[in-house]
Write a structure and sequence with these properties.
mainly alpha
């Protein structure tokens, strides 16, 4: 049986039960991605500012 045929045989109760199982995990994964992105910005943003500042100071005529 193909995946489409198997999905067509699922009842509405089975689908809602599967979604309820996935929802907390999806919310947890989204929170983890947001936390990792925030941590990455906290590290990279000052580094980018320093690199831009150094490039501007080296390009300026002395």
């Amino acid at each position: 049986m193909t995946g489409t045929a198997a999905a067509a045989n699922l009842s509405a109760e089975q689908v809602s039960a599967m979604l309820e199982e996935l929802s907390p995990r999806a919310a947890s994964d989204a929170a983890l991605r947001h936390r990792n992105f925030s941590r990455l910005l906290r590290v990279l943003l000052p580094a980018i500012v320093v690199i831009v500042w150094l490039a501007a100071s080296l390009a300026a005529p002395a």
